[in-house]
Amino acid sequence: MGKNSLSLKQHINKDVVFIMKKGELIMTEAIKAVKRERSGSSDSKKLRASGKIPGIVYGHHSESKSIALELRDVEHLLAHHGIGAAVDLDIEGDKVFAMVKDVQKNLFRGKLLHLDLQELTKGETVKISIPLHFLNKDKVEDSVMIVVEQVHSVDIEVLPKDLIESYDVDASVLKDQGSITMSELGIFNDDRYTVFADADTVIATLTQGGSKEPVAEETDELETFSVEVVDKATETE
Question: Do residues 19 and 170 lie in contact, with contact meaning Cβ atoms separated by under 8 Å?
Fold first, then answer.
């Protein structure tokens, strides 16, 4: 497991700074919701028929809250951010900072059915898995050489204010080196993040022969996003 100990400004190897493009911080969306007094399939159907969808906010130090949200607001949120998005919820005047934890959809019609959120608290880190996006592969690939992505996501622990949805890796550096390791990621050397991976883990290589990896077929089902809240000392600003 790698524990971050250096900030981005403290890199000893300056090449690392331009090799890896830093992930962008998650932008917070503001959404209004109302409390749900009833539950069950019958009530949920009535909500959806009125242009709303049911949801739940799981609390860490408080009881879970059943809510209803405007469908168009949730669709906008998922279209621009997806699973793991940070949300400023306004539940009838009660402000709650949360993260999208899971989305349920009808697999045949693709309609949104339910939204699960996890309440976040200052000073308490969350453990999440973020995808790695490999950019500029076309700059090193040709009819002979291809980029092989060996790691597609990485588990991190971070305070809510520093959450990121994904991390971009510049694959063009493979033109001058045979592989990219986890230690070359800027996030690995940023003391705001704990990365649960070994420093020498190879995440991509430039390999001769074979064909490019096939693109996975799209499905209507959204991936479940697990969030684990970890008690921590009060956050230092």
Answer: yes
Q: Is the pTM of this model over 0.90?
A: no
Whose CA is closest to 190, among 36, 53, 25? 25
Task: Read off the pLDDT of residues 104-117 as tens digits, 9 standing for 90 and up.
Answer: 998 888 889 999 99
Does the residue 222 lie in any domain?
A: no
We report the CATH number of the domain holding residue 61 as 2.40.240.10
Name all contacts of 195-199 with Cβ < 8 Å and 24+ positions apart. Answer: 195/1, 195/2, 195/3, 195/4, 195/154, 195/155, 195/156, 196/1, 196/2, 196/127, 196/154, 196/155, 196/156, 196/157, 197/1, 197/2, 197/151, 197/154, 197/155, 198/1, 198/2, 199/2
Residue burial 69-84, b: 16+ Cβ < 10 Å; e: rest: bbbebbeebbeebebb
90 shares a domain with 40: yes
The secondary structure of 110-158 as a DSSP string is --EEEEEEEE--TT-EEEEEEEEEEE-GGGT--SSEEEEE---EEEEEE
Residue 228 lies in a domain: no
Which pLDDT band holds residue 7 (cuts at 50, 70, 90)? very low
